[in-house]
Design a protein that fits this description.
The structure holds two protein chains of two kinds. By secondary structure, chain A is mostly helical. Chain A contains 26 helices and eight strands. In chain A, helix 8 crosses helix 24. Classes of the chains: A mainly alpha, B mainly alpha.
């Protein structure tokens, strides 16, 4: 080996920093004058980078619990490991010896008594049976070391792969027994989900392009057969959806079956956020869980109905997109339901969200200041919002982003302000409304109508109904916006400015009805329309999104349909989407960057379309060109 | 290396906690053992993924921890716990791999064009964390990762475990030598040869 070969042999160690200073200096001096070695070093470095680029998979969920359960099942846990080890080893050795003796005896018996001729076959077969297998002959170096204690004492080879392929560890003893539902679907109550043991996500990554193309081709065929549910608590609603599917005899299919059979659904969720993995056009501030369900048409219709009844209608009004939320409130008020300070809370949260955005220095999103300038409302000096036609309102995309999310969704366990469960309305120390009722201004509506003030202890029953017929009639005839106009004065920023009136003092409740009450307030039909809008309204595009053409719905829809194969009619498929908005102020840096890219692209496209549609090339103003927009 | 670790306060603190865990574990405290499992489960699981494939990784990793628990009383603290644990895991993985290569009833390396579903999961999850720019890029990343996996799979066990422990687990040569019970020079040679072989196998990805 010449000097160059010697250096070549050192390259990996040099790359790993495992050479001494003197050795490293020699290598560096050689590399400085030898281009071949330098290239080889770079190739090794690139190889190392490739290896390091391999994704690391976290251990499976409940891995530690499974290990402990297995340890208990083997009698290891809860006892002295040393005693256990010694005992188990003796038992194992005794068992092996007994089996060996039995095998030899049986072999001899068979060979001598039955066949009356010595044949080695049975003897060898039995002697080579599993008890003698884990001898550790296949460890490095050909020794029987297996693994050693740290003090160098050799241990007999522990059973490796032979025992490793034993039955999977069972869950903890506290696990409830599985419930068998329709169609034999097993509901695993252990984690509150339809059992997905063995289920795996579809191979998005390797089939991305084909999947998208195939999906686009199929999209029109099942257009309309989708259920989109806006939620503020993705996990619990996901569980609810899965329970509904379970109750309707639809199982989550293990993805080993590339061909999805009827009555099965594929959970397309990856890492809780499918969009994050495939983030191009889709909004980066959205989390979705999607299911592609195959089944008979009637069955899917029934499923959609069940989802509507059991999941959609359980969604809180407060979590609806902002324009739809206001319309829902207006309708409910018209019907006589009390919405309490829901509007106020929503406005406050939106304002806080904006304030948070403003407080972030050098935010990566250049579109944000423009949106704030368009809506100069702040938490400090708030004026009642003017009446507006929600239907005609088409907020900009940025406004929609900023207004369509509740800030409390993240902090308060993603719980809506008002839900159908009375348990959620119990006083809570982490709720500003509960902890200090007077510290929070009442809603514009309530304050303006003179019924706003309440005593500090009037914070428990939010479901009491308005019993005053005059009040009901007055509410039925005026929207909250009308009542805000009545007041003609801004909501006081200081809680002390809100003084209880005798009328209000007699009013036992001001916080409003529950969502259930609102939804049942004689406007079921119109409310369902509103909810339908909530389901289908493209939140992030402000109405600017193109029709639901394949190219417009984004790649995420394409992946949803991947897996649709094997002759299952497309009309018998349905997509269920659970969607949750993420507050822009709570995005991490990378999400902010993605959002920034999307916003820039959006603005660029807008200006380009405007420029192309309204100006001639020679008359185009210089500041309306795409080039300037991109700057 | 010992000096470096001693100068690293977080690692030192972790070691102290770990020592307490080990003592409790040796006294029969299964909860302490659970802490140890949680501490090292990802690393051991990844080693098993690289050595034996993801299909077997969970069971092998579980087996490694159980063997460690069963013999924790033998651990005297003269080497690092994770080195001891890695030794168990590495031997299990190598044993499994060799056993699999003889029996062949477990398909650890199917044809490349069939794809590895579980591996795609890993890629997808990782891409989710990295917020990949485009699905096309995701596809490319998945394909690239698959090629790397295939190249690794073609290496002999002793080369593969060396390069896995070095480049994926970040262990130094001395630790790897301790785990594999070979001289440091052997580790150095194996890692270099493994990289040379991988470089040739991955020439397409490296542009060479």
């Amino acid at each position: 080996m010449n000097a160059k070969d010697n250096i070549r042999e050192q390259l990996s160690a040099y790359l790993d920093g495992e050479l001494s200073d003197a050795q490293a200096k020699v290598v560096e001096q050689t590399l400085a004058h030898d281009a071949d070695l330098a290239r080889e070093l770079e190739a090794l470095r690139a190889t190392q980078d490739l290896l390091r680029s391999l994704p690391k998979a976290p251990a499976p969920k409940n891995f530690a619990a499974n290990v402990l359960a297995e340890a208990r099942s083997r009698g290891l846990a809860g006892q002295s490991p040393a005693k256990t080890s010694g005992r188990s080893r003796w038992i194992r050795m005794a068992g092996m010896a007994a089996m060996l003796v039995m095998a030899m005896g049986l072999g001899m018996l068979l060979s001598q008594k039955i066949f009356r001729q010595p044949t080695a076959g049975p003897h060898h077969e039995i002697a080579a049976a599993p008890p003698a297998e884990p001898t550790g002959q296949d460890v490095p170096g050909g020794t029987s070391r297996g693994w050693e204690t740290d003090d160098g004492m050799a241990e007999e080879r522990v059973e490796g792969a032979g025992e490793a392929r034993t039955e999977r560890a069972v869950p903890a003893p506290a696990t409830p027994a599985p419930v068998i539902g329709k169609g034999g679907v097993t509901y695993d109550a252990y984690d509150g989900r339809v059992s997905r043991r063995g289920a795996r996500s579809y191979d998005f990554a390797s089939n991305a392009v084909d999947a998208r193309n195939e999906a686009f081709a199929k999209l029109d065929e099942i257009n309309g057969k989708t259920v989109e549910i806006y939620v503020d608590d993705l996990p619990s609603n996901q569980a609810a959806v899965e329970q509904v599917m379970f109750a309707n005899g639809i199982a989550l299919a293990p993805d080993e079956q590339a061909v999805i059979a009827p009555n099965q659904a594929v959970n397309l969720m990856t890492n809780r956020n499918f969009f994050e993995a495939q983030n191009t056009r889709p909004a980066p501030d959205v989390e979705e869980v999607q299911y592609l369900v195959y089944g008979k048409q009637e069955q899917l219709q029934q499923l959609a109905k069940a989802l509507d009844e059991n999941v959609v209608r359980r969604q809180t009004v407060s979590q609806l997109p902002e324009p739809v939320f206001r319309q829902a409130i207006e309708l409910a008020e018209t019907a006589g339901a009390k919405t309490g300070n829901m509007v106020e809370k929503k406005d406050t949260e939106l304002s806080n969200m904006k304030a948070t955005d403003e407080a972030v220095p050098a935010g990566p999103n250049p579109a944000m200041p423009a949106a704030k300038a368009a809506k100069p409302e702040t938490a400090a000096a708030k004026t009642p919002p003017a009446p507006r036609d929600v239907q005609a309102e088409t907020p900009t995309r940025v406004e929609a982003i900023m207004e369509g999310e509740l800030a409390t969704a993240d902090e308060e366990g993603n719980r809506g302000l008002f839900s159908g469960s009375s348990a959620e309305h119990q006083p809570s120390v982490d709720s500003p409304t509960r902890a200090a009722p007077l510290a929070e201004p009442e809603s514009e509506m309530v304050a303006g109508s003179g019924e706003s003030a309440r005593a500090a202890d009037e914070d428990t029953d939010m479901r009491l109904k308005v019993t005053d017929p005059e009040e009901v009639a007055r509410r039925a005839g005026a929207t909250n916006w009308d009542m805000q106009k009545e007041s003609q004065q801004p909501v006081a920023a200081e809680p002390a400015a809100v003084q209880p009136t005798p009328e209000a003092a007699a009013e036992p409740l001001v916080d409003g009805d529950s969502d259930d009450k609102i939804q049942q307030a004689g406007q079921a039909a119109r409310m369902s329309q509103v909810l339908e809008q909530a389901r289908t309204q493209p939140l992030l595009t402000g109405g600017e999104r193109a029709p639901q053409s394949p190219s417009a719905v984004g790649v995420q829809q394409g992946y949803v349909l991947r897996g649709d194969v094997a002759g299952v009619p497309a009309t018998d498929a349905m997509i269920i989407t659970l969607r949750r908005r993420v507050s822009p102020s709570r995005l991490n840096y990378r999400q902010q960057q993605n959002l920034d890219v999307v916003e820039r692209q959006y603005q660029y496209d807008q200006l380009r379309r405007t420029s192309e549609a309204t100006t001639q090339p020679q008359a185009a103003p210089p500041n309306a060109t795409p080039q300037s927009a991109g700057q | 290396m010992a000096d470096e670790s001693a100068a690293n306060p977080p690692k030192r603190t972790l070691s102290l906690d770990e020592a307490a865990c080990i003592r409790r574990c040796q006294a029969g405290d299964s909860a302490a053992f659970g802490d140890l499992v949680e501490r090292y489960q990802d690393r051991i699981y990844n080693v098993m993924c690289r050595m034996a494939g993801r299909d077997d990784a969970e069971e092998l990793a579980q087996e490694a921890f159980l063997k460690a628990f069963e013999n924790i009383h033998r651990f005297g603290g003269r080497s690092r716990f994770y080195t001891w644990l890695y030794r168990i895991a590495a031997n299990l993985a190598i044993s499994q791999r060799r056993r699999g290569s003889k029996v062949r009833f477990l398909s650890m390396s199917g044809p490349a064009d069939e794809g590895d579903q579980s591996f795609a999961d890993t890629v997808t999850a990782d891409l989710a964390r990295q917020r990949t720019d485009a699905p096309d890029a995701a596809a490319l990343a998945g394909e690239r990762a698959r090629q790397i996996e295939a190249a690794l799979d073609e290496l002999d066990e002793e080369f593969r475990i060396a390069v896995v422990l070095r480049d994926m687990e970040g262990l130094d040569y001395a630790e790897i030598a301790d785990i594999l019970d070979v001289p440091a020079g052997t580790v150095k040679s194996r890692i270099h040869r493994a990289r040379i072989m991988l470089k040739d196998k991955l020439a397409g990805l490296l542009g060479g």
